[in-house]
Each structure stands twice: as C-alpha cells, then as structure tokens.
TrEMBL record:
GO terms for molecular function: ATP binding; nucleobase-containing compound kinase activity. Keywords: Coiled coil, Kinase, Nucleotide-binding, Transferase. Pfam families: Dpy-30 (PF05186). InterPro entries: Adenylat/UMP-CMP_kin (IPR000850), DD_AK7 (IPR047499), Dpy-30_motif (IPR007858), NAD(P)-bd_dom_sf (IPR036291), P-loop_NTPase (IPR027417). One of its GO terms (biological process) is nucleobase-containing compound metabolic process. This is Adenylate kinase. Signal peptide: none annotated. Residues 642-659 have a biased composition (Basic residues). CDD domains: DD_AK7. Residues 189-223, 512-561, 626-676 are annotated as: Disordered. Residues 913-967 form a coiled coil.
Length: 1017
C-alpha cells in the first residue's frame, strides 16, 4: 500500500467528527468571506470544520492569524484567546523556512477539546508550497477554488483524478461570466437585415424625406447631453429601479440558461479559464468519489468592494472627472453581492446532492445597465459627474472587460437553493445601493465626522473651526453667513444651467432648420429630372413652419443676429442666382416657430422642471424674512375721544381694503428694506439643512461654526420633522412691531431677539429626536470670562486700527451678542447645551439610532489674545495650537481613504518647495555671511593700508629730518677731514705697515695743513 493510501486511511477516523474544508485562496476578496462562513461554525450534521487556508500571496501567511483574531469565534471569543485552536503556519517550502522551528511545524496535533467536546484546526500555507497543498487537497472533504490561476486548477484536478479517494469529495470552482463574454446570439441574421436587402431598391429621396420627418419629431439633444448640462434626473428611491432610461434595450438581449454552457465564448484574456472549467466539469464522477460544479459569478460587489472599489473611492472623494460610462452605457452587467455568492457556494458544498447541472450561474435577480449602476452610485454618495469612455480607450482602463459585459442570464439553480432569508441583495446593485454604500463606509471606517463649535463672541470659534477642519479632518467648515452666500450662489448656478440648456436647444434647432433649408435648396439642382420632390420639400417646410406661435417673451431670447451664409456658386447651375451667396438664415416667422418649439421642449423636460421647482422653493426660503413695521404718524390710541378713535379705526380699515397690495409688490417698492430684514429661524434652518445635505457634508462631515444660536433654531436644524415651506411668497414675510422710540439703531436686534423668544425654551418630555445625518457627534462649547473677551476686543481693535466711534459700535454689538449668549446659555432654564445633551438620533433602516452627541465645555481663557502670526514661508505647515490638539484628542483620528494621488503629488511638491526654500535661505545666509566677511576684510585691509601709509609717511618724515640734521656734519667731514683722510688711507694701502693705525696717525700729523685744527681734533 502506498504512502498516500495510508495517509488517506488514517484520516478516515478524524473525518467522522470534523469536516475538512480547503479554501483557495483565503486572502482574496472572495476567499476571506468564504473563510468567515466556515470559521468557528458547525455543519448541518453537527460536526465542526477543519479549515485549510491556502494563500494567494506569500506575505498574507504571516498576517492571516492577526486577521483571524479580529473575527468572532463562538460566543465572541477572539482567536488568540482560544487555546483549543492550534494553528499551523507554513510560510514556504522546506529548506527556506526550516529556521522557524517548532512555530511552523507542519504536523500540528489536536489541541485540548472545547466545551462541546470538539476540536478545531487551522492550517495556513502558501499556494507554492506543493507538499502542503497536496496534503490539504487529499485530506479535505470540501474544496472551494476561486479561479485565478488555471494551472493551479489543472494541478488540483490532476491530483484528485490520479489518486484513490476513499471518501466522496466535493469541488466547487468559482469562475466568472467573463468566459461568456463573447457568446454570440443564436439567430445571427435578424429580420432587419433581411428587410434591408429587399428595401435596397427603394428610392433614396423617400429615405431622406423620412429621415427629415424623424428629425423634426425628435429633440435636438441626447439624454447624455441634457444630463451633462442639467445634471442627472432626480428619481425617488422607490421608483429608481423601475425608472426607464433611454438607450437600454433589455428585452432585446437574449436570455442565457445554464444548459447552454457549450455555446460560451470567453473574452480574449480568459480562454485558459474556459479550459480549466471544462477540466473541473469533466472530473465529476461517482466512481472516483468526486463531485464537481462550476459557478459562473457575475460582477461582485458589497462589503468593501473589490474591482469596484476605485469607483466608490472616486465618488466618495468627489473627484472632478466623475465616474466612467463605458461605451453607450446600455450594456447589461450581471452582478452578485459577495455575501450571496459566498452563501451560494456554501449551499453547494453542504447540499445533500450536487445540482443536476455541472454549470450554474451566480447572479442576483436584476438586469441593470452599467449606466444605471453609475447613476445609482452617484445618487448614493451625492455625485453628479460622469464621463464617457469610447471603445478605443478601453485599453487605458483596468478591468474594463468586467464593466462592458452585455449578458442576461437565468440563475435558476441559485434561486432554488437559497431561501429568501439567505439573500443579502436579491434585488441587485441598484435596488440595494444604500446598503452597499453603508457597507463600504463601515468596512473602510469612513463615517463622517460632525463637529459643532459654540461659544461667546470673540472666543475664537472661527479660527478654531478652520484649523480643525482643514488641517486635521479635511472636512468643510462654514458659518451661517457663508451658508447664506452659498445658498444664493447655488440658485444662480441652477439658473445659469437652465439658461445654457435653453440656449443650446435654440441653437441646435436653428442650425438644424438652416441645414434643412440648404438640403431642400440643393436637392432639385443635383437631380433636375425629379421636379415633384421640390414641391414635397416645400410642403414639408410648410408643415414645419405651422407650429404654435411663441409668446413675445420667448421670442426675445432668439438669437436673430446669427445668420449663416453658404456660398453655393460651385454647386448651383449656371442659370441659378448667378453664383451669388445664398442666405439660408431663418426669417422672423421661422424664428418664432423655433422659439415656440424650443419653449415646448424646455417646459416639458423633466430635469428642467425639477430645477425650476427647486429654484422656486429656494427663492421662497430667501423671501422668508422678518419685516419691521414702521411707526404710524397717527396715534389713534392717544386721542382722548373714544368716538373719534373708533371712527379713525374704521376709516383705516376701509383704506386698507381699497389700497390693498400684495406683499411682493410692497417688497418691490422697498427692496433695500427687504434685503436688510433678518431671516426667520425656519429660513435659516432650511439653508443649514440644505448645506448639511450636500455631498461633502454627507460623506466627510462638517465643522459648524457658531450656529445654531437658540434652542428653537437647533430643533429646526437637527430635528427629524420636515420643514414645511410656504406655498407662495405672500406667506413668507412675518411683520413685527418696530422698537419703541429712542431705541436707536438697534431696533433690528430687538426684533431678532423678540422672534427668537416667541417659542420658549421648554425642555422636552424625554429626548430631543434628531436626524441621523445632521446631528453632530461632538459639541464643543468654548467658555471665557468677560474681562478676557473685552481684552481680546481691545487687542483686535488696535490691530485693525479702528477709530473711537467704530470702537463704540463694536462694543455695543459685543454687548448685544453677549446678552443673547447669556440668555441662551446661562439664564435660561433649558439652555442650548442642554438640548444637545438630551438629543438622540432616530433609528433608520441601516442605522440603529440612539446616537447622542458628546458635549464638552472648553475654557479658552489661557489662550493668547491674538492668534500667532503665520509662518514666513507659504509652503510651511503651521504648528497646531494647544486647543487644536485638545479637540483632536477628543475627536480621534480622521476618517479618510488617505491622500489621493493628486494630494500626494501636491504634498510632495510642497515638501520639495519648502526644502528648496530652506536651502535657498541657507545659501542666502551663507552668501550674506561671506559677503559680510568679505566687506569686513576689505574694510580691515583698507584700514591697514591707511595705517601703513601713515607709518611710512612718518618714517619718511623721520628720515628726512635725520638727513637734515646730518647735513652740516657731512659737509664738515667732506670739506675738512675726508680729503686728508682718504689720502692717508691710500698711503696706508701702499706701504702696508705693521701698525696701520699708528702709521695713519703719524701720517696725518705730518701732512696736516692746519696744525691747530688737527690738534684740536
């Protein structure tokens, strides 16, 4: 008996209590979820699973145990706490990993039993470790292989078919529908092609006439172009699955069934996969005790994503170019949720009998196009932008074959084997997009960070909000003033979109009609024998002109100045218009017809209707203001006669009825007063809700600065109750009595306070129910004593150079703001911080609810009065302050996908520029030091030269003085002594006496002409 047979027999006893499962490959997107299905669970027969995890990457072997530690294992115990689960880790082949010793010993033994009397074993190894792979294949009862390498499949099937199997094994190969990518339809010649051959003899002019009639019916802009101008059509979530999209011919696509596996033709890159599928299917044999099945999986999604992760990252990060639409976008892409695929694979492994078909489909029950999937993904994360990728650019994109599949398959086996409770996304990608987006956010820890910073005036809210939002968490930050400006700018953007859309409609229809006139002018001259066609064309043009006339207002928008002059001198006959330029521009009546037709299209476009309704509702919000009634000149209440007072009231009512004017007309007469009137709390809440619903706030979060100011505003902004807007502009203005006489210029402040105090700060019965997407996670209330805030006000005034009158105004505004702050934070029974302490979110479909914000009071009295100056370099990152570090310690790390390639490049460029700037600064310092030392050296040299010149001058003067003093003596010697002495010396040289001195002295005495003088010498 061979060694393999002995090993198989020795494993029979162990297999009675455990079921061995081999997963290839446990470190992939599919393999990890498959591992989770078996890890720490029991089979239907009550036996536990012994898992052999084969890794695709060698580096995953060491990290897989740490991954297992994060998974729940039997009542929530972690992997490392279960001493009953011994682990075998094989990092490579024998000689390469021999130095690891007993830690990675291949012959792991059974550990102590669990509480239920069973034991488990986890065997982790690399796919290139041949002995371990062969041992795991022969020892496993259930084998699930993800088709990534066809050669690995060939090796496993060859091993199973060449060995004697004592027990039935079941092999599931999870492949892809890419092996069906190029499957042709059954009927290659359609009815349209046959009709095309019979209609080839028809007259060409009739085809052109029919084409012109079709052009007049259809709109001049395609849905893609309308979407590029106006954005995607907003459809309700319930109707999104059934909303029709132009260009999708789902019913015309052939439905493929599981018994048509012999027809499949794979993509050019996956021909070896088809061979691997055939080998697995042909290995199915009861005599060999081997049951096989091939699963064709659609595009997988969910739980963090795999190949679609890049699209989720793009739309979550709000990248500028948007999501790609490959080709026309109408291709039907079969999809399946990764959890449904894993569950289906487990059902196939644990089924009592294998499915009747050796080839089965694993897809959801939806047949949606790629364009619809992109639009659903944009809707889930608030994106709008898309761009089209032509087939010529497919090679520039990764995994593009997965997104250009155009298949409809029937998943009959999957529907039969899986119950309704087993499905995670039976309705498909579009129907479950909210759940899929939530899974992506949870798996990548991308929960939005929502922060609210409140506090008294001049407490540093704005500076702190900007620093925390931009430096640390990369989220938007805004004040209520910025929200109002963004709200108005968004209205202008929507209006500009509508204007551009209408202008494009007008220009295209105008151009199309001019081209039609040109064709009608040239056709009879190209074929003069056909004269009846000219009359037909003129009749067709007459039908086109018989459109409903446009209104005068719509006629003004026509561009009457743009005309097109076409030179027809080379195409017309000699007797036609003498070769002069022919004007094909539309006349006034035709332009009115164009305006009427464009107006019909403009008024009937669904997206344009949505935008106009949005603009109208947003403008009604802007008109929700509080108007102060001016004081009346008459004082009927002050009159002493009650009868006159009653008559005056009656006359006033009659005058009001006669001279009654709408609110909008009164606003037109006094626009300055209306523009300066304060907004209602509901209007401010609508603006803030709109801003918090923008994609950047929904995905990343926000830092809200100094708003809300009252409890009523907080309830309107964060409450779950929808805000009802007035139906017309007449109901948007609330009139309040003006301030009493002598109140000065602070009447508006008093009105605002009065409007804020209309509803008392009454505490709720239990909790403040708030919306999950808007309620902040952290509320920081900055506190500081009044003297500190006054000192900061003084310091800010000095820096800004304000005069005395301006300082007084600032002081009054500060006092008014402090009074409002104390009323809402300290003096009231139910303050604004109390609102957030009692606030709680409401449960939704994907969120459990019950989230409460963390409210913290932060004392800022120890901070400097003025912010530190910015760094000298524009590329330097300012050092975070102590208060920033404190807030970041409470909030925690940022929830992002990391820096994008563009951000990494910008950061690298900034670091390089900073390094270059510092290097230039060092070089500049060295150069300056060198120049300074050179200047000092030159100055010292000059000083030395001056001193040397002075010394030389002194020496020269001394020598000249000495020479002047020696002159009389020299003259005396030269005149009286030197002549006689020189003769004496000559005589000494001639005679050479023994004693020359005595000889010279005697000679001088003898030859001295002046005895007296010599004697005196």
């Amino acid at each position: 008996m061979s060694v393999e047979e002995v090993s198989c027999l020795s494993e029979d006893f162990a297999s009675r209590t455990t079921t061995s499962v081999l997963i290839l490959y446990a470190d992939t997107y599919f393999g990890r979820r498959m591992f989770q299905q078996f890890y720490g669970r029991k089979s239907k027969t009550g036996t536990c699973y012994r898992i052999n995890a084969c890794m695709w990457s060698e580096s995953s072997v060491e990290n897989f145990i740490d991954y297992c530690d994060t998974l729940p294992f039997q009542m929530g115990h972690s992997f490392r706490s279960r001493q009953s689960l011994p682990t075998v880790i094989d990092l490579g082949t024998q000689a390469e990993k021999a130095n690891l010793g007993s830690t990675i010993d291949g012959g792991a033994t059974q550990g102590p039993d669990n509480a239920d009397g069973t034991s488990h074993q986890l065997n982790v190894f690399w796919r290139r470790n041949g002995p371990k792979l062969h041992q795991a294949v022969l020892a496993s009862d259930l084998i699930v292989v993800e088709l990534r390498s066809a050669q690995d499949v060939f090796d496993i099937v060859h091993l199973l078919t060449t060995k004697i199997l004592r027990k039935t094994k079941r092999l599931i190969l999870v492949s892809s529908l890419l092996t069906w990518y190029a499957t042709p339809p059954l009927q290659r010649e359609s009815v349209e092609e046959v009709n095309g051959e019979t209609d080839s003899v028809e007259n060409e002019e009739e085809g052109e006439h029919h084409e012109e009639e079709q052009e007049e019916v259809q709109q001049p802009m395609k849905p893609d172009e309308v979407e590029a101008l106006l954005g995607p059509l907003e459809v309700a979530e319930d109707d999104y699955e059934n909303s029709p999209l132009e260009g999708e011919a789902e019913g015309e696509l052939e439905l493929l069934t599981e018994d048509q596996y012999n027809r499949r033709i794979p993509h050019a890159k996956y021909f070896n996969w088809r061979e691997a599928e055939r080998v697995v299917a042909s290995a199915n044999s009861d005599d060999r005790h081997l049951q096989t099945c091939v699963v064709f999986a659609g595009l997988t999604y969910g739980e963090g994503e795999d190949v679609m992760e890049s699209f989720f990252r793009q739309v979550w990060s709000r990248e500028e170019h948007g999501l790609p639409i490959y080709g026309s976008g109408s291709q039907i892409v079969p999809c399946v949720h990764i959890r449904d695929l894993v569950t289906f694979a487990q059902r196939l492994l644990e089924a009592a009998a294998p499915p009747t078909s050796r080839y089965v489909f694993a897809t959801d029950n939806s047949n949606v196009s790629w364009r619809r999937m992109v639009l659903a993904l944009n809707r889930a994360f608030g994106g709008e932008k898309t761009f089209h990728v032509p087939p010529s650019e497919y090679l520039l994109h990764k995994n593009v074959e997965l997104f250009t599949m155009n298949l409809r398959v029937e998943n009959s086996t999957m529907n039969e084997m899986m119950d309704e409770s087993d499905w995670a996304a039976r309705g498909g990608f579009v129907d479950s997009i909210d759940k899929v987006a939530h899974e992506f956010i949870e798996s990548h820890n991308l929960q939005p960070i929502r922060i609210l910073i409140l506090g008294p005036p001049l407490s540093g809210k704005t500076a702190l909000s900007g620093a925390v939002a931009k430096r640390h968490y990369h989220v938007p930050t805004f004040t209520i003033e910025q929200v109002r400006e963004e709200y108005k700018e968004h209205i202008e953007i929507l209006k500009s979109r509508l204007a551009k859309f209408r202008q494009c409609l007008h220009e295209r229809e105008k151009t199309r009609r001019e081209e039609a006139k040109k064709r009608a002018f040239l056709r009879p001259r190209n074929k003069p024998e056909v004269k009846e066609e000219e009359e037909d064309d003129q009749n067709a043009m007459g039908e086109t002109q018989q459109q409903p006339t446009a209104s005068p207002d719509s006629g003004r928008q026509g561009n009457m100045e743009s005309t097109r002059l076409v030179d027809c001198s080379t195409t017309v006959a000699e007797d036609d218009v003498d070769g002069k330029a022919v004007d094909f521009s539309l006349n006034e009546e035709e332009m009115q017809n164009v305006e009427a037709l464009v107006d019909d299209w403009y008024q009937g476009n669904e997206r344009a209707i949505q935008i106009r309704d949005t603009i109208a509702s947003m403008e009604r919000v802007l008109s929700m203001r509080i108007r102060v009634q001016p004081p009346s000149s008459n004082d009927p209440l002050g009159s002493s006669n009650p009868k006159k007072r009653k008559e005056g009231t009656k006359q006033k009512r009659v005058a009001k009825v006669v001279n009654k004017k709408p609110v909008a007309e009164e606003e037109e007469h006094n626009p300055v007063q209306q523009e300066s009137a304060p907004f209602q709390d509901k209007a401010l809440a609508c603006m803030v809700r709109w801003r918090l619903s923008r994609p950047d706030c929904r995905n990343q979060g926000y830092v809200l600065d100094g708003f809300p100011e009252t409890v009523e505003q907080a309830r309107l902004v964060f409450g779950q109750t929808p805000l009802e807007l007035p139906e017309n502009n007449e109901d948007t203005v609330i009139s309040l009595p003006s301030a009493p006489a002598g109140s000065g210029g602070y009447a508006r402040t008093a009105v605002v306070r009065h409007s804020a105090s209309l509803s008392a700060n009454a505490p709720p019965e239990s909790t403040e129910l708030c919306d999950e997407d808007r309620l902040p996670d952290f509320v920081f209330v900055l506190t500081a004593p009044d003297n500190y805030l006054l000192d900061r006000l003084t310091a800010v005034s000095k820096i800004s150079g304000e005069t005395g009158s301006t300082e007084e105004k600032c002081l009054r505004r500060f006092e008014a703001a402090m009074a409002n702050y104390q009323q809402q934070y300290t003096n009231a029974e139910y303050t604004l911080p109390n609102f957030f302490e009692t606030a709680s979110t409401v449960a939704k479909v994907l969120t459990p609810g019950g989230r409460t914000p963390t409210v913290l009071a932060v004392d800022v009295s120890g901070q400097p009065l003025l912010p530190p100056p910015p760094p000298e370099s524009d590329f330097a990152v300012p050092e975070p302050g102590q208060l920033e570090k404190l807030l970041c310690a409470y909030v925690g790390p940022s929830h992002t996908l990391g820096l994008s390639p563009k951000q990494l490049f910008d950061e690298e460029i900034r670091a390089r520029n900073l390094e270059m700037e510092e290097r230039k600064k060092e070089m500049r310092a060295i150069t300056e030091q060198y120049e300074r030392e050179l200047r000092e050296c030159m100055m010292e040299s000059e000083q030395r030269s001056v001193v040397e010149d002075a010394r030389r001058a002194i020496d020269l003067a001394d020598r000249e003085a000495l020479e002047e003093r020696k002159r009389p003596l020299r003259m005396y010697l030269n005149h009286n002594i030197m002549p006689l002495l020189s003769k004496g010396l000559v005589e000494v040289c001639k005679r050479r006496p023994v004693d020359p001195v005595d000889f010279l002295a005697e000679w001088l005495m003898l030859h001295n002409p002046h005895d007296d003088s010599c004697f005196e010498l």
